[in-house]
Hints:
- The chain is an alpha+beta fold and about 160 residues long.
- It folds into two domains: about 5-50, Winged helix-like DNA-binding domain superfamily/Winged helix DNA-binding domain (Arc Repressor Mutant, subunit A, Orthogonal Bundle), CATH 1.10.10.10; about 65-145, Lrp/AsnC effector binding domain/regulation of amino acid metabolism (RAM) domain (Alpha-Beta Plaits, 2-Layer Sandwich), CATH 3.30.70.920.
- It has helices at about 5, 10-25, 30-35, 40-50, 85-95, 120-130; strands at about 70-80, 100-105, 110-115, 135-145.
- Helix 3 (about 30-35) packs across helix 4.
Amino acid sequence: xxxxxxxxxxxxxxxxxxxxxxxxxRRTNTDIAEAVHLSEPSVRRRLDRLxxxxxxxADVALLDRARLGVTLIVTITFKDDSPExxxxxxxxxxxxxxxxxxxxxxxxxxxxxIAHAASPAEFERWAHEAIMSDPAIRRYDTAVVYSTVKxxxxxPV
Length: 157
């Protein structure tokens, strides 16, 4: 997200539009305009501005993870706190196809990684290559997701 998005003022119309497109980004500008009581050109301009500012990062399709393999939540703990090791790990996670999210966190773990694999064996292979081979990592723990109780991509606005 660019710096403009952090300082961008959102009014009530922007917030209403963002709630609608987070629920269904395939809604037409005309449909959104009717729902928020603005003109279609005004909605289009606002959406363009929100995308340009980085508030809306992408328009994507959300897939059902449970139908496509197994989701794993991995906590990573480093041996020593080193900015270089953190940067290298973060850069490597950005290139890993099976990683859908990687968070640098406070607390007992240093990173939390959300990974997805076709099977537990595929995850094990990846973990050996991407995690266990990293000498900076002291430990990793994995939680296998059995079912999803709640998963939302929407951010309250």
